[in-house]
């Protein structure tokens, strides 16, 4: 192997080694910080606490209702509708009376548990229920029994359980629709690609501050010169961005674990609907497009925030730019109904192709099936291409901005500097 | 080297020889740090290149370079050992080797018990020691030190100089920016004086003394010292004067001839000593004029 070739391989090897070292350092120190875990675990812990409280509350309500139902409720009632079956009412502990005033007085004095006044037309006029106070959960029992008396009496009059079910609206409908002769997935096909919107939004919100401050730290700590004579700035910036991806992945896992635990172990007590994964439709193309849009959007926003961090002297100075970027990102959500109902609307088209509003707009349209293949190709290409340009810009801004320790660097300064032959060419 | 159309460094070329200590001198704002940053690729120069052993410098090429910048800084929220290990790995050491080297160095400079302390919990001087360690941990062949003693107390300054001396004895080349002229005279083999982005003087210290300031004559006398094209009267008291020999372009002036001319002029010379201008005197004479003009 000739000398030049050996040197080239040595440089490449050193470059890869440095990239690994930067990723290892950045990921290690982020995951090693208590603050990171405090912020990351805050939401899952809050979810856990809510789950525990809801679970505890549900079991308390259930046991209270069980205890109440075990006790015999006696009540009086009057019926001007004629729908109440006396046999049903008696079986449930009821006694018919004609004097509502006296019956209510008996309830007030505690001689009777409850009194129900069924009006002439219970469908239009409310049934009056009077009862001795049994607390927030116990009082619900009166409504339940009053309704049950009327409901069972009505079912008995219909006489056919199937007709009763239909009358109660217990009907299930399965809809099948077609596009271009192919069966469309419907609602179950929308949810899987929508997950990318949630992941993108969640990870960005959690990591955006870190993206912004990742290069500010070198600047604020005056460590840039040491870094730039040791390490290619492209390797540094790339390492930081890859680290942010890894940290984002860890955060998503940390969020998903309590959700999965809650679903698997507490689904019944939380009254969560049973999700049949087989009912979801995973369109491979939609999933790939969603993943690429999320990835491209994440790369673009990360690169932009890193570039802003490289230019601004402090995190405070970078704040206003950061806010503008957040607004651009979430502005499509304000036009959600337009995006869903009229994808060809000029506003939606602008949001689809403007790079910083494109990720969320395109991901939504992809999930709802209104993003054509060619549109997806353009947006994905645009996002990745622009990410690469912004990365290069971030490197250049970092090179000049990060040693302007107390000043903002101007674009004129950055771009007026010619490239050198040899030295510093990276 | 241009900044937004303004030329900061122009036509500056110098060699630093293997194993020597080279002083890079100049007043504040004369372009020293800018030159170093351009050489090291921190700034992209308009033109020009740094060659080490005839090859263009790049950090990844494995050139064993140690750079201590004027703007000092480390990752303040991380532990001392984490930071040193990180830089060691970036400079090509294995993690194990970087940890081992760092621990030995910290013990040597009295910071063995601070290895796991956060950098921002150290004093300024202690942080400087850590930064010096980071600079030399790859056993550099070329050390570039920008104001190395800035922030050090006399004890730690001596420690720093010992460490630099060791590196030099081990064959390292040292390029040092400093305003401490006594350090330059003590340590440097050759120097360059930078003014307005150009080399004002360049060579060994005696060469620079000859090149710029030449010889100074201190005389005790009675009488009236006449003006002469061969010297400038820089100090003139009643019985004492300092004469700086001027470069007339016709070769060196013999101090004995000056003495004879003074005697011939009727001056009663009581004492007559010659000495070279110190670097500090040359520095003041070069940059004092600049500062006076700036202040005017």
User: Mean pLDDT of chain B, rounded to whole units?
Assistant: 81
Strand content of chain B is: 15-25%
Number of strands of chain A: 6
Task: Please tally the helical runs of chain A, counting DSSP H or I stretches of 4 or more residues.
Answer: 17
- For the record, the CATH class of the largest domain in chain B is Alpha Beta
The count of domains of chain A is: 2
The percentage helix of chain B is: 25-40%
The structural class of chain A is mainly alpha
Task: Please write the string of helix (H) and strand (E) elements of chain B.
Answer: EEEHEEEHHHEHEHEEHEEEHEH
Biggest interface, chains and residues, is: A-B, 41 and 46 residues
For the record, the CATH architecture of the largest domain in chain B stands as: 3-Layer(aba) Sandwich
Count of distinct structural domains of chain B: 2
Rg over CA atoms of chain A: 33 Å
From the spread of the alpha carbons, the general shape of chain B counts as elongated
In total, the number of strands of chain B is 14
Can you put this structure into words, describing what you see?
By secondary structure, chain A is mainly alpha-helical. Chain A has two domains: 261 residues, no CATH class; 88 residues, 3-Layer(aba) Sandwich (D-Maltodextrin-Binding Protein, domain 2). In chain A, α3 links the parallel β1 and β2. Chain B is α/β, with parallel strands linked by helices. Chain B folds into two domains: 206 residues, Rossmann fold (3-Layer(aba) Sandwich), CATH 3.40.50; 62 residues, no CATH class. Chain B is 35% helix and 24% strand. Chain B starts with a strand and ends with a helix. The mean pLDDT of chain B is 81.
